[in-house]
Design goal:
Blueprint (H helix, E strand, L loop, with lengths): L7 E2 L2 E2 L6 E2 L10 H16 L3 H11 L16
Antiparallel strand pairs: 1-2, 2-3
Length: about 80
């Protein structure tokens, strides 16, 4: 069992429905770091789309929110 996978929780794969036991050689294996990088890339691709497409995606997958459009917190010195 490879517990370095982003989807392995308590020995079960939460990426698959129904959940299954995590195993070596899984086709869905991805490190936590790679999963984070992939999410950032996906959000950048969505942000580059026209606003109408972004609204559609937000409504369908993000309950109407657009997390890719949120600004980073400002740090005042």
């Amino acid at each position: 069992m490879n517990t370095n996978c982003f989807a392995c929780r308590g020995g079960e794969c939460i990426a698959l429905k129904p959940t299954r036991a995590c195993c070596d050689g899984c086709r869905f294996f991805k490190t936590k770091r790679r999963a984070t990088t992939d999410r950032k890339r996906a959000k950048a691709l969505i942000a580059a789309k026209p606003l109408a497409d972004q609204k559609y995606i937000a409504g369908k997958y993000y309950q109407g929110t657009m997390p890719w459009r949120k600004e980073a917190p400002r740090r005042d010195c």
